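Action item from last week, closing it out:
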Amino acid sequence: MIPIAERWFDIRKIDDDITLLTEPHVIPLMRCNIWHVRGSERDLLIDTGMGIVSLTEAARHLFDKAVTAVATHTHADHIGSHHEFDRTLVHVAEADNLAHPTEAGTLLYSDFSQDELIKIRVAGYEIDGDLITALPHAGYDLRSYRIRPARVTEIVADGDMVDIGNRRFEILHLPGHSPGSMGLWEAASGTLFSGDALYDGPLLDELDHSDIPAYVRTMRRLRELPVRVVHAGHDPSFGRERLVELCDAYLAHRA
C-alpha cells in the first residue's frame, strides 16, 4: 500500500536569489529540480516538476512579484505545473508541445514500453513500479494524472536574452536530449541552468526524439563555457571541473 506524504515539496534556499524545490516522493528518473530565481523586476521558475500538487500553493511564500515559468524542455517531469502560471517561456522547437502536450496521457504508474524500459535501465535508472513512492493525499487516483496545456507567452531561440532586472540570462539552445532543450547562461556570474542537457547522473540520449549527433555538438559547446556553477535539471549542482569531466565522458562514449 502506498503511504500518504506528510508534505510534497522539499524547499531549500541556495543563496539570496536562488531556491531549489524538489519532489522527494517522485522516483529519481522523474524527480526534476525546480529553480526559483529572484530578480529585481520579475522572478523565474525554471521548470515546474510533475504537477501532482499545486506548485503555486506550495511556494506562494517565494512569489512576491510576477513569475515567468521557464521550460528547459517539455518532458512531463519539467512542465507539470506550467499551466498554473500566466507567463511562460519555452524554446521555439517545443513551444507547441507546451501548449498542446503530447504526454497528456502520461500516467504515474509505470506505463513504459519494454523498449523504453530497456533504454532507461541501460542508462542507469532502476524503474520497476509506480513513478511515485507516496500519495499526495488520501484517495488520490494515480490514473487521474495528466499534463495540462499551458499558455505560451514567450518563445525564445538561441542567443535571446532574459532580463529580470538585476540579472540577465542568455538562452543557449542545447539539443540532443530533446529538440528544444535549452539552458540559461548568466555570463556575469558564471551560472548555468542546464536543464537536462547536462546533469550529474545518467544522461538519456536514446529517447524517440533524442539526437546523439546534436548532443555531441551540445557537449562540445558546454565544455568551452567558463562556468562557475551548474544548476541542472536533476541531481546536485556542480562546478566547471565536474562539467568538463561529464562532457569528456559523454564525448568519449559517443564521439
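Closing note: The radius of gyration is 17 Å.
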